[in-house]
Amino acid sequence: MDSIEATSAIVPTYARANVAFERGEGCWLISTTGERYLDFGAGIAVSSVGHAHPHMVEALTRQGSKLWHVSNLYQNPEGERFARRLADATFADLVFFTNSGAEANEAAIKMARRRQWIGDHPERFRVLTFEGAFHGRTLATIAAGGQKKYLEGFGPKVEGFDQIPVGDLAAVEGAIGPETAAIMIEPIQGEGGVRAIPPAFLRGLREICDRNGLLLIFDEVQTGIGRTGRFFAYEHVGVHPDILTTAKGIGGGFPMSACLATADAARGLTVGVHGTTFGGNPLAMAIGNATLDIVLAAGFLEQVAERGLLLRQRLAELKDRYPGVIEEVRGEGLMVGLKLRIPPGDFATAALGKRLLVIPAGDNVVRIVPPLIVSEEEIAEGVRRLAAACAAVEERLTVAIN
Q1: Positions marked active-site
Q2: What is the pLDDT of residues 293-325, one digit of tens each?
Q3: Dihedral through CA 304, CA 26, CA 191, CA 212, nearest 10?
Q4: Listed residue (245, 244, 169) closest to 211, CA to CA
Q5: Distance (Å, rounded) from C-alpha 177 to C-alpha 324?
Q6: Which residues does residue 359 pair with via DSSP β-bridges, in sequence order?
Q7: Does position 402 have pLDDT exceeding 70, yes or no?
């Protein structure tokens, strides 16, 4: 591996662990050296129905043998079916398909600005976002997130985004000006440290938007497609957004995303106003429909909620056993965070040593986001490996102190 990395032609923007995988089975990955790893990272909450799910493989091979791409110049029956299923299962009337979470968020921002423009408010283009947010890596979405570490070195910040503290409705009210078009928020901040936004705050944002003629955008790139035990996290809150973005789990590992909206919110996106070459291609749509076959099957989301509760209970017990390592257990469904008393990268490395994959995040957190098909036995095994990682970390801390 070291020799491969030394001669790599890939731009070195990733600090890659010294392991490579050649195949997967459900919640397990098998390395090129034959070792089995329990995947509690799911490719950063992407492999929603596990690795090599038979239904997904069948959909991929069936569609792959027929048609991959024709562009959006022609009718798309599989895309029409996928969009209708998403709309019928949510608040949305219309869906725009894209390829990544950042693209979906770009579409949402453009949609909100355009809706204000056609509503005789061309001055309204600014979007209120929240400290600790992450909305993508494009120039606009790093400006939306507002975090210095992602903005530094890329020139002037794209205009039109204002960050405010999360949880403070008075601060939201005070930040609204004549140029404000929308409010954009993650119901649970993923990269920001699995920080759940209080439902009362989200309901307050809905009321503020209604009162001020603003659009409410929920970034559910990470929380959507069953991750929190509901199809989308907004269902826990009792209100819905005008626009919602989703990616990650929607394709079970295939790169795709979507921007969902009410008919009114999408009114400004008419022919020629926005587009994508690859978005909604037949291969992606077939795989997306296969994902919905699994996630929307009777009892599936209820099982995710039950397994998530079990996982959080076991992790709470782990916190009591290792209070010097784990400070807090956070999350909803199978989107769980461990706030640590050590750097999350160090803990992820320790877990990797126990053949367990977890994902570092902000606020000193590691994310535990297994495939939604994880079994009770695999949860128990994962917690055993987490305990072993905690013990290894604790031992190193003791040695360092002495």
Answers
A1: 134, 219, 248
A2: 999 999 999 999 999 999 999 999 999 999 999
A3: -40
A4: 169
A5: 46
A6: 367
A7: no
Tell me how many degrees the CA angle 225-228-229 measures, rounded to the nearest 5.
85
Range 389-393, long-range pairs (CB < 8 A, 24+ positions): 389/347, 389/350, 389/351, 389/353, 389/354, 389/356, 390/318, 390/321, 390/322, 390/325, 390/326, 390/350, 391/322, 392/350, 392/353, 392/354, 393/325, 393/342, 393/346, 393/347, 393/350
Integer distance in angstroms from the first to the last C-alpha of the chain? 35
3-state secondary structure of 196: strand
Q: CB-based contacts of 209: which residues, under 8 Å, 6+ apart?
A: 182, 183, 215, 216, 242
On the CB side of 288, CA atoms within 13 Å amount to 27
pTM (2 d.p.): 0.96
DSSP 219-260: E-TTTTTTTTSSSSGGGGTT---SEEEE-GGGGTTS--EEEE
Q: Which helix (H) or strand (E) holds 128?
A: strand 126-130
Please tell me the distance from the alpha carbon of residue 377 to that of residue 319, in angstroms, as a whole number. Answer: 20
The values of phi and psi at residue 303, to 5°, are -65, -40
CA distance 242 to 258: 14
Residue 280's pLDDT band, with cuts at 50, 70 and 90, is very high
Please state the φ and ψ torsions of residue 162, each to the nearest 5 degrees: -130, 120
- 309, two tokens: 């509760």
Contacting residues for 88 by C-beta, under 8 A, at least 6 apart: none
Asked if residue 355 lies in contact with residue 385, where contact means CB atoms within 8 angstroms, the answer is: yes
CA angle 41-148-346, nearest 5°? Answer: 35
Q: What is the pLDDT averaged over residues 69-79?
A: 96
List own/partner pairs for 273-278 with CB under 8 A and 24 or more apart. Answer: 273/114, 274/96, 274/107, 274/110, 274/111, 275/72, 276/72, 276/97, 276/98, 276/99, 276/103, 277/71, 277/72, 278/69, 278/99
Rounded-to-integer distance, Cα 161 and Cα 142, Å: 10
Give me the mean pLDDT over the 75-99 stretch: 98
Distance CA 177, CA 363 (A): 30
